[in-house]
Write a structure and sequence with these properties.
Radius of gyration: 32 Å
Order of helices and strands: HHHEHHEEHEEEHE
CATH topology of the largest domain: Alpha-Beta Plaits
Structural class: alpha+beta
Strand content: 15-25%
Strand order of the largest sheet: 2-3-1-6-7
Oligomer: single chain
Number of domains: 2
Distance between the termini: 58 Å
Largest sheet: 5 strands, mixed
Length: about 240
């Protein structure tokens, strides 16, 4: 029941009670030889009590339906913006966030840095140990990324084993520190799957942007992707960028 139909129900319910009381009293007074006002005194409180009870019941039901719809909407929203495996932003949403940050940086003359991360030799990991093993690795590295970034940074899975981090209002030092922190944390971490220890490394491309006047989303992604490619070509397990 929506609010409009609920309002109509209240109106008709009130009308029904208003008409029912005198009609009932007229009928009863014609059957028994008792003053009609006595019936009014008896039935008005009873009928309005019943009406109030039904009104409260309807209000409770509407409140429950509203909470259920809010929970469903919240769940659907999360599903639409989060990556199912890692729980971080998915590709579509991280790109939407990038558009917002680029617009904000241009409007307020702020800086913006970007980091792209790739798990080294991830295809070999999948081929050798299976995709479930690979999924576990992705979930674990994402947790480490999440602990290495600042509160205001925005982390998302770009696709496969690649991740993007947006660093609003970052300095070159800030971007470099976060990138190195991620690389070192992954390098030092002992991954364990089915009681087997496993080492993982990541390559990181970082780029700091001071002037974003003519910077598009495509240009931004291309810059940090080029930095990542250089890190992979230079031997992996390292950070390369223009900071």
């Amino acid at each position: 029941m929506n609010w409009q139909s609920f309002r109509y129900s209240l109106a008709f319910g009130g009308l029904a009670v208003g008409l029912a009381v005198p009609l009932i009293c007229i009928v009863l007074s014609s059957i028994w030889d008792v003053d009609g006002f006595a019936y009014l005194t008896l039935f008005i409180p009873a009928l309005f009590a019943i009406f109030g009870f039904l009104l409260g019941y309807l209000m409770d039901k509407l409140s429950e339906q509203k909470k259920t719809l809010e929970n469903i909407n919240s769940s659907l929203k999360e599903q639409s913006i989060l990556d199912e495996l890692t729980g971080q932003y998915n590709r579509r949403h991280i790109l939407q966030e990038l558009d917002k940050e680029l617009d904000r940086a241009r409007r307020y003359k702020h800086t913006l840095a970007g980091i792209m991360i790739d798990v080294d030799d991830f295809k070999k990991i999948n081929d050798r140990h299976g995709h479930l093993f690979g999924d576990h690795i992705l979930k674990e590295v994402t947790k480490i990324f999440d602990h290495c970034v600042r509160t205001i940074d925005i982390l998302g899975r770009y696709g496969g084993d690649e991740f993007i981090i947006l660093l609003p209002e970052a300095t070159p030092d800030t971007a470099g520190v976060v990138a190195e922190r991620i690389k070192n944390a992954i390098h030092k971490h002992a991954f364990e799957v089915k009681k087997k220890k496993f080492k993982v490394t990541v390559s990181v491309g970082a780029q700091y942007f001071h002037d974003l006047t003519d910077m598009s989303r495509v240009d931004f992604i291309d810059k940090i992707d080029q930095a990542l490619y250089k890190a992979k070509a230079a031997g992996k397990d390292r950070v390369i960028g223009h900071l």
